[in-house]
Amino acid sequence: MRSNSFRLPLRLVALAALVTLLSGCVAAVVGGTAAGVGHDRRSWSTVISDRNIQTTAYDNFNKDKELALKNNVSIVVYNGVMLLAGEVRTAELKQRAEQRAGGYEGVRRLVNEIEVREPEGFLSQRRDNTITAHVKTALLDIVDMPGFDPTRVNITTVHRTVYLMGLLTHEEADRVAEIARNVAGVEKVVRVLEYQD
Protein backbone atom coordinates (compact mmCIF):
# COMPACT_ATOMS: atom_id res chain seq x y z
CA MET A 1 0.00 0.00 0.00
CA ARG A 2 1.31 3.44 -0.97
CA SER A 3 1.70 6.13 1.58
CA ASN A 4 -0.10 9.46 1.20
CA SER A 5 3.23 11.16 0.52
CA PHE A 6 3.41 9.44 -2.90
CA ARG A 7 -0.22 10.15 -3.83
CA LEU A 8 0.08 13.92 -3.65
CA PRO A 9 2.94 14.24 -6.20
CA LEU A 10 1.19 11.79 -8.57
CA ARG A 11 -1.99 13.82 -8.36
CA LEU A 12 -0.05 17.02 -9.04
CA VAL A 13 1.62 15.44 -12.09
CA ALA A 14 -1.74 14.22 -13.38
CA LEU A 15 -3.31 17.63 -12.79
CA ALA A 16 -0.43 19.41 -14.55
CA ALA A 17 -0.77 17.04 -17.53
CA LEU A 18 -4.53 17.63 -17.68
CA VAL A 19 -4.10 21.42 -17.57
CA THR A 20 -1.53 21.22 -20.37
CA LEU A 21 -3.84 19.09 -22.53
CA LEU A 22 -6.85 21.30 -21.90
CA SER A 23 -4.94 24.49 -22.63
CA GLY A 24 -3.91 22.97 -25.95
CA CYS A 25 -7.54 22.19 -26.72
CA VAL A 26 -8.62 25.69 -25.82
CA ALA A 27 -5.87 27.16 -28.02
CA ALA A 28 -6.97 24.92 -30.89
CA VAL A 29 -10.61 25.95 -30.49
CA VAL A 30 -9.81 29.64 -30.17
CA GLY A 31 -7.27 29.38 -32.98
CA GLY A 32 -9.73 27.50 -35.16
CA THR A 33 -12.43 30.10 -34.54
CA ALA A 34 -9.99 32.92 -35.14
CA ALA A 35 -8.71 31.25 -38.30
CA GLY A 36 -12.26 30.80 -39.59
CA VAL A 37 -13.10 34.42 -38.87
CA GLY A 38 -9.87 35.57 -40.52
CA HIS A 39 -11.47 34.98 -43.93
CA ASP A 40 -14.86 36.26 -42.83
CA ARG A 41 -15.78 39.92 -43.17
CA ARG A 42 -18.09 39.65 -40.18
CA SER A 43 -16.70 40.43 -36.77
CA TRP A 44 -15.93 37.54 -34.45
CA SER A 45 -18.88 38.51 -32.22
CA THR A 46 -21.24 38.61 -35.22
CA VAL A 47 -20.15 35.13 -36.33
CA ILE A 48 -20.84 33.77 -32.83
CA SER A 49 -24.15 35.65 -32.62
CA ASP A 50 -25.29 34.30 -36.02
CA ARG A 51 -24.49 30.73 -34.98
CA ASN A 52 -26.26 31.11 -31.64
CA ILE A 53 -29.37 32.64 -33.22
CA GLN A 54 -29.53 29.90 -35.86
CA THR A 55 -29.15 27.12 -33.28
CA THR A 56 -31.74 28.67 -30.96
CA ALA A 57 -34.17 29.26 -33.84
CA TYR A 58 -33.89 25.60 -34.94
CA ASP A 59 -34.40 24.48 -31.36
CA ASN A 60 -37.55 26.57 -31.00
CA PHE A 61 -38.77 25.50 -34.45
CA ASN A 62 -38.32 21.81 -33.58
CA LYS A 63 -40.54 22.16 -30.51
CA ASP A 64 -43.50 22.43 -32.89
CA LYS A 65 -43.70 18.80 -34.01
CA GLU A 66 -46.18 19.49 -36.82
CA LEU A 67 -43.75 21.99 -38.35
CA ALA A 68 -40.61 19.99 -37.71
CA LEU A 69 -41.72 16.51 -38.77
CA LYS A 70 -44.17 17.09 -41.62
CA ASN A 71 -42.54 19.99 -43.46
CA ASN A 72 -39.12 21.00 -44.75
CA VAL A 73 -37.70 24.36 -43.64
CA SER A 74 -34.09 25.57 -43.61
CA ILE A 75 -33.00 28.39 -41.29
CA VAL A 76 -29.80 30.27 -42.15
CA VAL A 77 -28.47 33.34 -40.31
CA TYR A 78 -25.67 35.47 -41.77
CA ASN A 79 -24.65 38.92 -40.51
CA GLY A 80 -27.95 39.36 -38.69
CA VAL A 81 -30.07 38.38 -41.70
CA MET A 82 -32.27 35.30 -41.23
CA LEU A 83 -33.38 33.29 -44.25
CA LEU A 84 -36.27 30.82 -44.05
CA ALA A 85 -36.51 28.60 -47.12
CA GLY A 86 -38.30 25.36 -47.90
CA GLU A 87 -41.89 24.25 -47.96
CA VAL A 88 -44.86 23.85 -45.65
CA ARG A 89 -48.32 22.52 -46.41
CA THR A 90 -50.45 25.55 -45.47
CA ALA A 91 -50.25 29.34 -45.23
CA GLU A 92 -50.95 29.05 -41.49
CA LEU A 93 -47.89 26.81 -41.11
CA LYS A 94 -45.78 29.33 -43.04
CA GLN A 95 -46.83 32.03 -40.57
CA ARG A 96 -46.17 29.71 -37.64
CA ALA A 97 -42.70 28.92 -38.99
CA GLU A 98 -41.88 32.64 -39.15
CA GLN A 99 -43.18 33.20 -35.62
CA ARG A 100 -41.18 30.22 -34.31
CA ALA A 101 -37.93 31.22 -36.02
CA GLY A 102 -38.16 35.00 -35.80
CA GLY A 103 -38.00 37.65 -33.12
CA TYR A 104 -34.46 37.11 -31.87
CA GLU A 105 -32.23 39.94 -30.72
CA GLY A 106 -29.51 40.41 -33.31
CA VAL A 107 -31.73 39.65 -36.32
CA ARG A 108 -31.93 42.84 -38.38
CA ARG A 109 -33.92 41.37 -41.26
CA LEU A 110 -35.99 38.23 -41.77
CA VAL A 111 -36.47 36.92 -45.32
CA ASN A 112 -39.27 34.36 -45.51
CA GLU A 113 -38.92 32.40 -48.76
CA ILE A 114 -40.98 29.42 -47.55
CA GLU A 115 -43.32 28.09 -50.21
CA VAL A 116 -46.79 26.74 -49.44
CA ARG A 117 -46.74 23.37 -51.19
CA GLU A 118 -46.37 19.68 -50.55
CA PRO A 119 -42.84 19.03 -49.27
CA GLU A 120 -40.52 17.36 -51.73
CA GLY A 121 -38.88 14.08 -50.82
CA PHE A 122 -35.38 12.83 -50.09
CA LEU A 123 -34.26 12.67 -53.74
CA SER A 124 -35.19 16.31 -54.33
CA GLN A 125 -33.29 17.38 -51.21
CA ARG A 126 -30.31 15.31 -52.31
CA ARG A 127 -30.37 17.01 -55.72
CA ASP A 128 -30.46 20.42 -54.03
CA ASN A 129 -27.44 19.44 -51.89
CA THR A 130 -25.60 18.42 -55.06
CA ILE A 131 -26.39 21.79 -56.67
CA THR A 132 -25.04 23.57 -53.58
CA ALA A 133 -21.81 21.57 -53.81
CA HIS A 134 -21.46 22.36 -57.53
CA VAL A 135 -21.99 26.09 -56.96
CA LYS A 136 -19.38 26.11 -54.18
CA THR A 137 -16.93 24.32 -56.47
CA ALA A 138 -17.65 26.71 -59.35
CA LEU A 139 -16.86 29.70 -57.13
CA LEU A 140 -13.31 28.39 -56.73
CA ASP A 141 -12.73 29.47 -60.35
CA ILE A 142 -12.91 33.14 -59.33
CA VAL A 143 -9.19 33.80 -59.12
CA ASP A 144 -8.99 37.15 -60.91
CA MET A 145 -10.79 39.27 -58.29
CA PRO A 146 -8.34 40.58 -55.68
CA GLY A 147 -9.50 39.82 -52.15
CA PHE A 148 -12.37 37.53 -53.15
CA ASP A 149 -12.78 34.46 -50.94
CA PRO A 150 -15.48 31.91 -51.87
CA THR A 151 -15.82 30.85 -48.22
CA ARG A 152 -17.50 34.23 -47.58
CA VAL A 153 -20.53 33.10 -49.59
CA ASN A 154 -23.18 31.00 -47.85
CA ILE A 155 -25.14 28.91 -50.35
CA THR A 156 -28.48 27.26 -49.66
CA THR A 157 -30.45 25.46 -52.38
CA VAL A 158 -34.15 24.63 -52.14
CA HIS A 159 -36.22 23.42 -55.14
CA ARG A 160 -33.35 24.25 -57.52
CA THR A 161 -33.38 27.87 -56.26
CA VAL A 162 -29.98 28.99 -55.00
CA TYR A 163 -29.97 31.50 -52.14
CA LEU A 164 -26.76 33.52 -51.80
CA MET A 165 -25.87 35.05 -48.45
CA GLY A 166 -22.73 36.89 -47.46
CA LEU A 167 -21.03 40.22 -47.02
CA LEU A 168 -19.74 41.02 -50.52
CA THR A 169 -18.94 43.94 -52.78
CA HIS A 170 -21.43 44.59 -55.59
CA GLU A 171 -18.85 43.38 -58.11
CA GLU A 172 -18.32 40.13 -56.19
CA ALA A 173 -22.07 39.62 -55.81
CA ASP A 174 -22.67 40.05 -59.55
CA ARG A 175 -19.94 37.58 -60.40
CA VAL A 176 -21.11 35.00 -57.85
CA ALA A 177 -24.72 35.26 -59.03
CA GLU A 178 -23.66 34.84 -62.68
CA ILE A 179 -21.61 31.74 -61.89
CA ALA A 180 -24.43 30.24 -59.80
CA ARG A 181 -26.96 30.84 -62.62
CA ASN A 182 -24.81 28.79 -65.00
CA VAL A 183 -24.49 25.71 -62.78
CA ALA A 184 -26.44 22.74 -64.14
CA GLY A 185 -29.81 22.27 -62.46
CA VAL A 186 -30.13 25.83 -61.10
CA GLU A 187 -33.47 27.38 -62.02
CA LYS A 188 -33.27 30.61 -60.04
CA VAL A 189 -30.77 32.64 -57.99
CA VAL A 190 -31.93 34.82 -55.08
CA ARG A 191 -29.55 37.31 -53.45
CA VAL A 192 -30.00 37.67 -49.70
CA LEU A 193 -26.76 39.62 -49.45
CA GLU A 194 -25.27 42.45 -47.48
CA TYR A 195 -23.02 44.79 -49.44
CA GLN A 196 -19.65 46.01 -48.23
CA ASP A 197 -19.01 48.83 -50.72
Describe what is shown at a glance.
The protein has 197 residues and is an alpha/beta fold. It is 51% helix and 23% strand. It has a three-stranded mixed sheet. Strands 4-5-6 form a three-stranded mixed sheet.
Fold and architecture overview:
The protein has 197 residues and is of the alpha/beta class. It has 2 domains: 1-38; 44-195, Histidine-containing Protein, Chain: A. 51% of the residues lie in helices and 23% in strands. It contains 6 helices and 6 strands, in the order H-H-H-E-E-H-E-H-E-E-H-E. The protein has helices at residues 4-38, 44-62, 65-70, 91-101, 122-139, 170-181, and strands at 72-78, 81-88, 109-116, 153-158, 161-168, 188-195. The chain has a 3-stranded mixed sheet. A 3-stranded mixed sheet has the order 4-5-6. Helix 4 (91-101) links the parallel strand 2 and strand 3 (109-116). The longest helix has 35 residues, at 4-38. The chain is globular and about 50 Å long. The N and C termini lie far apart (73 Å). The model is unreliable at 1-8 and 12-36 (pLDDT under 50).
- Order the strands across the largest sheet as they lie in space: 1-2-3
Q: Name the helix and strand elements from N-terminus to C-terminus, one letter apiece.
A: HHHEEHEHEEHE
Indicate the structural class.
alpha/beta
> Unreliable segments (pLDDT under 50, ≥5 consecutive)?
1-8, 12-36
Individual helix count: 6
Query: What proportion strand?
Result: 15-25%
Number of strands: 6
Helical residues, percent? 40-55%
CATH class of the largest domain: Alpha Beta
Mean pLDDT score: 85
Rg (CA only): 22 Å
Question: How far apart are the first and last residues' alpha carbons, in Å?
Answer: 73 Å
Tally of distinct domains: 2
Shape: globular
Largest sheet: 3 strands, mixed
